[in-house]
Amino acid sequence: MTDFTYPILNDEVQLPFYVVGVGSSDTEWHVKRDEGFPYYQFIYCVRGQGKLLIDGKEFVIEEGQGFYLPKDYPHEYFPTQEIWETHWVTFDGKAVPDFMNTISFPHWRVFEISNVSAIDVLLKKMLHVLKTNYYYSGHQCSAMLYQFLLELNRYVNLQSSPNESYKLKQLQPVIDYIDNNYMEEIELKQLSDVIGLSPQYLCRLFKDCLNLRPFEYLARKRIQEAKTLLLEEKFTINEIARKVGYNDCSYFCAVFKRNEMLSPAEFRALHKRMGI
Protein backbone atom coordinates (compact mmCIF):
# COMPACT_ATOMS: atom_id res chain seq x y z
CA MET A 1 0.00 0.00 0.00
CA THR A 2 1.26 3.48 -0.85
CA ASP A 3 0.24 6.14 1.65
CA PHE A 4 2.33 9.08 2.78
CA THR A 5 2.31 12.71 3.83
CA TYR A 6 4.74 15.60 4.01
CA PRO A 7 3.23 18.02 6.53
CA ILE A 8 3.54 21.78 6.39
CA LEU A 9 6.19 22.64 8.96
CA ASN A 10 5.41 25.35 11.49
CA ASP A 11 7.03 26.14 14.82
CA GLU A 12 7.67 22.43 15.51
CA VAL A 13 10.98 22.96 13.69
CA GLN A 14 12.19 24.51 16.95
CA LEU A 15 11.57 21.24 18.80
CA PRO A 16 14.34 18.72 19.53
CA PHE A 17 12.67 16.24 17.11
CA TYR A 18 10.18 16.78 14.31
CA VAL A 19 8.75 14.72 11.46
CA VAL A 20 9.34 15.89 7.90
CA GLY A 21 7.60 13.03 6.13
CA VAL A 22 6.21 9.59 6.88
CA GLY A 23 4.58 6.85 4.84
CA SER A 24 4.74 3.61 2.90
CA SER A 25 5.47 2.70 -0.72
CA ASP A 26 4.31 -0.68 -2.01
CA THR A 27 6.73 -0.46 -4.92
CA GLU A 28 9.64 1.68 -3.82
CA TRP A 29 11.13 3.92 -6.48
CA HIS A 30 14.68 3.92 -7.77
CA VAL A 31 16.25 6.69 -5.72
CA LYS A 32 19.74 8.02 -6.44
CA ARG A 33 20.98 10.98 -4.43
CA ASP A 34 24.58 11.93 -5.13
CA GLU A 35 24.40 14.77 -2.61
CA GLY A 36 22.31 12.86 -0.09
CA PHE A 37 18.99 14.00 1.37
CA PRO A 38 18.68 17.09 3.61
CA TYR A 39 16.96 15.13 6.41
CA TYR A 40 17.54 11.96 8.44
CA GLN A 41 15.78 8.82 7.19
CA PHE A 42 14.76 5.41 8.49
CA ILE A 43 13.52 3.03 5.78
CA TYR A 44 12.55 -0.60 6.37
CA CYS A 45 11.13 -3.38 4.23
CA VAL A 46 7.86 -5.19 4.99
CA ARG A 47 7.58 -7.11 1.71
CA GLY A 48 9.71 -8.04 -1.28
CA GLN A 49 13.34 -7.18 -1.87
CA GLY A 50 15.51 -4.23 -2.85
CA LYS A 51 19.08 -3.08 -2.77
CA LEU A 52 20.95 -0.23 -1.07
CA LEU A 53 24.20 1.17 -2.51
CA ILE A 54 26.26 3.29 -0.13
CA ASP A 55 29.97 3.99 0.32
CA GLY A 56 30.79 1.60 -2.52
CA LYS A 57 28.96 -1.26 -0.80
CA GLU A 58 25.82 -3.16 -1.77
CA PHE A 59 23.20 -4.50 0.63
CA VAL A 60 20.15 -6.62 -0.17
CA ILE A 61 17.22 -5.36 1.93
CA GLU A 62 14.45 -7.91 2.56
CA GLU A 63 11.44 -8.17 4.88
CA GLY A 64 12.39 -7.32 8.46
CA GLN A 65 15.49 -5.39 7.40
CA GLY A 66 16.04 -1.67 7.07
CA PHE A 67 18.60 1.08 6.82
CA TYR A 68 19.35 4.43 8.41
CA LEU A 69 20.60 7.34 6.29
CA PRO A 70 22.07 10.44 7.93
CA LYS A 71 21.29 13.77 6.33
CA ASP A 72 23.35 14.86 3.29
CA TYR A 73 24.90 11.39 2.85
CA PRO A 74 25.12 10.09 -0.76
CA HIS A 75 23.16 6.89 -1.41
CA GLU A 76 21.11 4.92 -3.92
CA TYR A 77 18.38 2.31 -3.47
CA PHE A 78 15.99 0.49 -5.78
CA PRO A 79 13.72 -2.58 -5.98
CA THR A 80 15.16 -5.88 -7.22
CA GLN A 81 11.77 -7.60 -7.36
CA GLU A 82 8.41 -6.53 -8.72
CA ILE A 83 7.31 -5.68 -5.18
CA TRP A 84 9.52 -3.94 -2.65
CA GLU A 85 7.28 -2.40 -0.02
CA THR A 86 9.03 -0.03 2.31
CA HIS A 87 7.84 2.06 5.25
CA TRP A 88 9.78 5.17 6.14
CA VAL A 89 10.07 8.30 8.20
CA THR A 90 12.17 11.38 7.52
CA PHE A 91 12.95 13.72 10.38
CA ASP A 92 15.19 16.38 11.83
CA GLY A 93 15.66 18.43 15.00
CA LYS A 94 18.31 20.04 17.15
CA ALA A 95 18.66 16.98 19.41
CA VAL A 96 18.88 14.40 16.63
CA PRO A 97 22.69 14.20 16.13
CA ASP A 98 23.49 13.57 19.80
CA PHE A 99 20.50 11.25 20.20
CA MET A 100 21.49 9.11 17.22
CA ASN A 101 24.93 8.65 18.74
CA THR A 102 23.32 7.62 22.02
CA ILE A 103 21.26 4.86 20.40
CA SER A 104 24.23 3.55 18.35
CA PHE A 105 23.35 5.12 15.01
CA PRO A 106 26.30 7.51 14.59
CA HIS A 107 26.62 6.72 10.85
CA TRP A 108 24.58 5.05 8.12
CA ARG A 109 23.59 1.55 9.08
CA VAL A 110 21.83 -1.55 7.75
CA PHE A 111 19.95 -3.49 10.42
CA GLU A 112 17.38 -6.16 11.26
CA ILE A 113 14.25 -5.45 13.29
CA SER A 114 13.15 -8.21 15.65
CA ASN A 115 9.53 -6.95 15.81
CA VAL A 116 8.49 -5.03 12.71
CA SER A 117 4.80 -4.94 13.65
CA ALA A 118 5.53 -3.03 16.88
CA ILE A 119 7.49 -0.41 14.93
CA ASP A 120 4.81 -0.26 12.25
CA VAL A 121 2.09 0.61 14.77
CA LEU A 122 3.97 3.75 15.80
CA LEU A 123 4.74 4.76 12.22
CA LYS A 124 1.08 4.42 11.20
CA LYS A 125 0.01 6.52 14.19
CA MET A 126 2.31 9.31 13.04
CA LEU A 127 0.92 9.05 9.52
CA HIS A 128 -2.68 9.20 10.77
CA VAL A 129 -2.07 12.20 13.04
CA LEU A 130 -0.20 14.21 10.42
CA LYS A 131 -2.92 13.65 7.81
CA THR A 132 -5.49 15.31 10.09
CA ASN A 133 -3.85 18.68 9.35
CA TYR A 134 -4.51 19.71 12.95
CA TYR A 135 -2.26 22.70 13.71
CA TYR A 136 -0.52 20.96 16.61
CA SER A 137 -0.24 17.56 14.90
CA GLY A 138 3.45 18.27 14.31
CA HIS A 139 3.99 18.75 18.04
CA GLN A 140 2.10 15.55 18.79
CA CYS A 141 4.18 13.66 16.25
CA SER A 142 7.37 15.02 17.78
CA ALA A 143 6.60 12.93 20.87
CA MET A 144 5.60 9.96 18.70
CA LEU A 145 8.86 10.22 16.74
CA TYR A 146 10.85 10.13 19.96
CA GLN A 147 8.96 6.99 21.02
CA PHE A 148 9.46 5.48 17.56
CA LEU A 149 13.23 6.00 17.76
CA LEU A 150 13.43 4.52 21.25
CA GLU A 151 11.41 1.46 20.22
CA LEU A 152 13.45 1.02 17.07
CA ASN A 153 16.57 1.09 19.21
CA ARG A 154 15.06 -1.61 21.42
CA TYR A 155 14.14 -3.91 18.56
CA VAL A 156 17.37 -3.34 16.65
CA ASN A 157 20.09 -3.01 19.29
CA LEU A 158 18.67 -4.78 22.34
CA GLN A 159 16.74 -7.65 20.78
CA SER A 160 18.50 -8.00 17.45
CA SER A 161 19.11 -11.76 17.50
CA PRO A 162 17.80 -14.99 19.05
CA ASN A 163 21.16 -15.33 20.80
CA GLU A 164 20.73 -12.00 22.60
CA SER A 165 17.16 -12.89 23.57
CA TYR A 166 18.50 -16.15 24.98
CA LYS A 167 21.14 -14.28 26.97
CA LEU A 168 18.52 -11.99 28.52
CA LYS A 169 16.35 -14.98 29.40
CA GLN A 170 19.39 -16.67 30.92
CA LEU A 171 20.14 -13.57 33.00
CA GLN A 172 16.56 -13.00 34.21
CA PRO A 173 16.80 -15.25 37.35
CA VAL A 174 19.78 -13.18 38.55
CA ILE A 175 17.89 -9.93 37.95
CA ASP A 176 14.92 -11.36 39.89
CA TYR A 177 17.25 -12.44 42.72
CA ILE A 178 18.72 -8.93 43.00
CA ASP A 179 15.27 -7.32 42.85
CA ASN A 180 14.07 -9.54 45.72
CA ASN A 181 17.23 -9.42 47.87
CA TYR A 182 18.77 -5.99 47.28
CA MET A 183 18.47 -5.17 50.98
CA GLU A 184 20.85 -8.02 51.87
CA GLU A 185 24.61 -8.22 51.50
CA ILE A 186 25.20 -9.83 48.10
CA GLU A 187 28.40 -11.28 46.69
CA LEU A 188 29.21 -11.99 43.05
CA LYS A 189 29.54 -15.72 43.74
CA GLN A 190 25.98 -15.78 45.10
CA LEU A 191 24.69 -14.26 41.89
CA SER A 192 26.64 -16.59 39.61
CA ASP A 193 25.41 -19.59 41.60
CA VAL A 194 21.79 -18.60 40.85
CA ILE A 195 22.27 -19.72 37.24
CA GLY A 196 25.24 -22.04 37.74
CA LEU A 197 27.77 -20.02 35.77
CA SER A 198 31.17 -18.54 36.56
CA PRO A 199 31.34 -14.98 37.98
CA GLN A 200 33.32 -13.94 34.89
CA TYR A 201 30.64 -15.19 32.51
CA LEU A 202 27.92 -13.55 34.60
CA CYS A 203 29.68 -10.19 34.30
CA ARG A 204 29.87 -10.67 30.54
CA LEU A 205 26.15 -11.49 30.41
CA PHE A 206 25.28 -8.29 32.30
CA LYS A 207 27.48 -6.25 29.98
CA ASP A 208 26.01 -7.81 26.84
CA CYS A 209 22.38 -7.50 27.94
CA LEU A 210 22.23 -4.35 30.08
CA ASN A 211 25.58 -2.64 29.46
CA LEU A 212 26.10 -2.70 33.24
CA ARG A 213 28.18 -4.67 35.71
CA PRO A 214 26.19 -6.77 38.22
CA PHE A 215 26.90 -4.44 41.12
CA GLU A 216 26.02 -1.40 39.03
CA TYR A 217 22.60 -2.95 38.52
CA LEU A 218 22.39 -3.69 42.26
CA ALA A 219 23.31 -0.09 43.12
CA ARG A 220 20.65 1.25 40.76
CA LYS A 221 18.03 -1.01 42.30
CA ARG A 222 18.98 0.12 45.79
CA ILE A 223 18.94 3.79 44.85
CA GLN A 224 15.53 3.42 43.19
CA GLU A 225 14.09 1.84 46.33
CA ALA A 226 15.77 4.51 48.47
CA LYS A 227 14.10 7.26 46.44
CA THR A 228 10.69 5.77 47.19
CA LEU A 229 11.46 5.67 50.91
CA LEU A 230 12.81 9.24 50.85
CA LEU A 231 9.53 10.48 49.40
CA GLU A 232 7.52 8.80 52.16
CA GLU A 233 9.44 10.66 54.90
CA LYS A 234 8.82 7.86 57.40
CA PHE A 235 12.48 7.04 57.99
CA THR A 236 15.74 8.85 58.60
CA ILE A 237 18.40 8.70 55.90
CA ASN A 238 20.46 6.39 58.08
CA GLU A 239 17.48 4.01 58.41
CA ILE A 240 16.86 4.13 54.66
CA ALA A 241 20.50 3.29 53.97
CA ARG A 242 20.19 0.12 56.07
CA LYS A 243 16.83 -0.80 54.52
CA VAL A 244 18.30 -0.79 51.00
CA GLY A 245 21.43 -2.74 51.89
CA TYR A 246 24.03 -0.19 52.98
CA ASN A 247 25.49 -0.51 56.48
CA ASP A 248 27.60 2.62 55.95
CA CYS A 249 25.38 5.70 55.59
CA SER A 250 28.22 7.83 54.25
CA TYR A 251 28.87 5.33 51.48
CA PHE A 252 25.15 5.18 50.69
CA CYS A 253 25.06 8.98 50.38
CA ALA A 254 28.08 8.94 48.07
CA VAL A 255 26.54 6.28 45.81
CA PHE A 256 23.21 8.13 45.79
CA LYS A 257 24.82 11.43 44.81
CA ARG A 258 26.92 9.77 42.10
CA ASN A 259 23.74 8.40 40.51
CA GLU A 260 21.31 11.26 41.13
CA MET A 261 23.55 14.34 41.27
CA LEU A 262 21.83 15.11 44.58
CA SER A 263 22.41 13.90 48.12
CA PRO A 264 19.55 11.93 49.73
CA ALA A 265 18.72 14.95 51.90
CA GLU A 266 18.69 17.27 48.86
CA PHE A 267 16.48 14.82 46.95
CA ARG A 268 14.00 14.69 49.83
CA ALA A 269 13.96 18.48 50.26
CA LEU A 270 13.54 19.11 46.54
CA HIS A 271 10.52 16.87 46.17
CA LYS A 272 8.99 18.15 49.40
CA ARG A 273 9.12 21.71 48.00
CA MET A 274 7.51 20.43 44.80
CA GLY A 275 4.66 18.95 46.79
CA ILE A 276 5.32 15.38 45.67
Task: Record the SSE blueprint.
Layout: E1 3-5, E2 18-25, E3 31-33, E4 40-54, E5 57-62, E6 65-69, E7 75-92, H1 96-102, E8 109-112, H2 116-130, H3 137-158, H4 162-181, H5 188-195, H6 199-210, H7 214-232, H8 237-243, H9 249-260, H10 264-273
Antiparallel strand pairs: 1-2, 2-7, 3-7, 4-5, 4-6, 4-7, 6-8
Characteristics of this structure?
alpha+beta, 48% helix
Descriptive account of the structure:
With 276 residues, this protein is an alpha+beta fold. It contains ten helices and eight strands. The N and C termini lie far apart (48 Å).
Quick one: how many beta strands? Answer: 8
Class by alpha and beta content: alpha+beta
Task: Give the N-terminus to C-terminus distance in angstroms.
Answer: 48 Å
Low-confidence stretches: none
The helix count comes to 10
Order of helices and strands: EEEEEEEHEHHHHHHHHH
User: Roughly what fraction of the amino acids lie in strands?
Assistant: 15-25%
Mean pLDDT, as a whole number?
91
* Helix content estimate: 40-55%
- Please outline the major beta sheet: 8 strands, antiparallel
Shape estimate? globular
Please tell me how large the radius of gyration is. Answer: 23 Å
